[in-house]
């Protein structure tokens, strides 16, 4: 099955700085790569996703890049705000997807 | 209606009890999922139903029994659970993709926090 690794496990940034979270995956058949944000005690919510026929996707302050050759993908958050503080999960798969271990992002005001 | 609704929100059960978790969506989604999430860990896939048929069982112990009575409802029947089964159980659904894959956004419910005593 798919093995998704995510780094770092915790990330602390100053408000206004950028944050980058990186994931690698093992199964070359994976073609769907969503990113979920989970606030404490709440449900995971999709923030952005990318498919293997696209190298980069951007939505306002959030962007995701995908390198299929190297089997890694990254989440970039610019101009971070305190409300961005949460746990972020990457995922990868084909026909079902597996989550990375999560990154706890803390944005300090 | 753009929600996945799970009931109950909290459940405490003994190891000899039988209980059920319920999940409902009215978004016309044809794939529904059960995930288990332990504290500070990612969600782990348990089961996937596609068009009301069980398509994926991630080698889940038989004390967990899923059921999909119709395209809007998904149940998880629990029997003879162990304390280590205590976790947040998340239901999710996703829309049809037009092909056989399930590679599209999954909408999660708020979860049922289960405690086995």
What does it look like?
The complex is a heterodimer of chains A (109) and B (117). Chain A has strands at residues 4-7, 10-14, 19-25, 32-38, 45-51, 56-59, 62-67, 72-77, 86-93, 97-99, 103-108. By secondary structure, chain A is mainly beta. In chain A, the strands form 2 sheets. In chain A, strands 2, 4, 5, 9, 10 and 11 form a 6-stranded mixed β-sheet that branches. A 5-stranded antiparallel β-sheet of chain A has the order 1-3-8-7-6, with no helix packed on it. By secondary structure, chain B is mainly β. Chain B has strands spanning 4-7, 10-13, 18-25, 31-37, 44-50, 53-57, 64-70, 73-79, 87-94, 107-108, 112-116. In chain B, the strands form 2 sheets. In chain B, strands 2, 4, 5, 6, 9, 10 and 11 form a 7-stranded mixed β-sheet that branches. In chain B, strands 1-3-8-7 form a 4-stranded antiparallel β-sheet, with no helix packed on it. In chain B, strand 7 and strand 8 (73-79) form a beta hairpin. The mean pLDDT of chain B is 92.
Q: What is the gist of this entry?
A:
Chain A contains no helices and eleven strands.
Topology diagram in text:
The complex is a heterodimer of chains A (109) and B (117).
Chain A: E1 4-7, E2 10-14, E3 19-25, E4 32-38, E5 45-51, E6 56-59, E7 62-67, E8 72-77, E9 86-93, E10 97-99, E11 103-108
Parallel strand pairs in A: 2-11
Antiparallel strand pairs in A: 1-3, 3-8, 4-5, 4-9, 6-7, 7-8, 9-10, 9-11
Chain B: E1 4-7, E2 10-13, E3 18-25, E4 31-37, E5 44-50, E6 53-57, E7 64-70, E8 73-79, E9 87-94, E10 107-108, E11 112-116
Parallel strand pairs in B: 2-11
Antiparallel strand pairs in B: 1-3, 3-8, 4-5, 4-9, 5-6, 7-8, 9-10, 9-11
